[in-house]
User: What shape does this take?
Amino acid sequence: MKPTLKTPTLPTSTTICSAGAFNHKSFFLGKRLEHHRQLVDYPGSVVQDRTVYEDAEIFARNLYTQGAMNQRDWDTYSRLYKAISAFLPPPNLIIYLKADVETLMRHISQRGRDYERSIQPDYVARLNHLYDAWIEDWTLCPVLTIPMDGFDFQHNADHYEQIVQHVRARVPQVKA
Assistant: This one.
C-alpha cells in the first residue's frame, strides 16, 4: 500500500532547495507516522511500500549529504526521528527489492509519472547506496532481500509467483 503524499507547498525531493529541506522532510515524517499508526491499528496483515524508517534514513539523509539540509536542521530532524521511532512497533519483515541503477531507472521510466521524468541516474545511485547501507545495519526485524535485476513481476506471472514464494517462506500466512 503506497499512499500518495504530496506536500502542499514544496517540490519533490529531487529539486528541494536548502531553505525548505527541513520543512519538507518534517512534513513527510508526520505523514509517514500517521500512516504507520493506521497500519498498526489495522486488524489484518498489510504491505507497506515506504516506511517511516526509509523516509528518514534514506531520503532525509540524502538531502543532508547533498547539502540541501544544514547540520543544525539534520541534527534536529534526526533527534526527532530517533525519539519518535523508538516508540513505533517495528514491522514483522522488511522485503528489500534490490536492483541496480539501470533496472531502477527502467522501472521509473515505465511508471510514466510526469514528476519523475527528470530523475537522474546519479540521484538514484545515491539513494541505492543509502538503501544498501541502511539494510545492512537494520536490526529491528528480519530482512528478506530479493534481487530484482532481470525480474518483471508486474508483467510476468512466473516472476511474481517466485517473489510470492520467497515471501511465503518467511511469512507463511501471506496470500497471493
Notes: The beta strands are 94-98, 143-147.
